[in-house]
Amino acid sequence: MLRKNPSGHYPEVSSEAYIDNTAIICGKVIIEANVFIGPYAVIRADEVDENGEMEPIIIKRDSNVQDGVVIHSKAGAQVIVGERTSIAHRSIIHGPCVVGNDVFIGFNSVLFNTNVGDGCVVRHNSVIDGCDLPDKFHVPSTMHLGPDFDLDTIPRVVPELKSFSESVIGANHYLVQGYKKLSNEF
User: Fold this and answer.
1) Which among 12, 16, 47, 166 is annotated as catalytic?
2) Is 160 a catalytic residue?
3) What is the CATH class of 2-183?
4) Where are the domains of the chain?
């Protein structure tokens, strides 16, 4: 469901994107081509800053936001999800937040007040709060990274994880095309 926010902003969605009928996309949201938005996802840009302004939530091309994901932003701060990025089931991305290109965010992970570099893999049930990740970092499952976390203690992305991330992107590209075809069958 696409809907206007109280400030009057309405989502901008590419005709080449697929949004499940149970998803809610509200307000100043931009969804680019070949994006998959799964069942029960909520992407909501409706809070304003102290000046009554807000930045958009942008989901860039070829990315996927899977089942039950919530993307929101505090006080109108910007959220960007880069190209070819996967946000897995039931994750929370809360702005201010920038997630780079070719990133995988695992099930139930939470990101807040962070910048995640290109090519990073954040495994399942992890929390990143106030800690920026450089390109190609691997955050193992269940880790909690805060502002004082020593990034030298976590590994870089290995080829197997990069291949896994690419396979998730490929599967979701197929779903965009398949569901768009089904939505035209009545």
Assistant:
1) 47
2) no
3) mainly beta
4) 2-183
Query: 109 is written with which tokens?
Result: 């992970």
Give dist(CA 147, CA 52) in Å, integer. Answer: 29
Minimal CA–CA distance to 157: which of 173, 124, 132, 134? 134
Rounded CA gap, 39 and 150, in Å? 36
Distance CA 37, CA 80 (A): 15
For the chain, what percent of residues have pLDDT higher than 70?
93
**What phi, psi does 140 have (nearest 5°)?**
-65, 160
Smallest CA-to-CA distance from 128 within 141, 113, 117 is with 113
Q: Can you tell me the mean pLDDT for 74-82?
A: 95
pLDDT for res 178 = 82
Which residues, in sequence order, are bridge partners of residue 26? 3, 44
The overall pTM is greater than 0.85: yes
**Which residue stretches of 51-185 are H helix?**
159-183
Please give the Cα distance from 67 to 35 (Å, whole number).
13
Rounded alpha-carbon distances, angstroms, from residue 117 to 135, 156, 157, 161: 4, 12, 12, 15
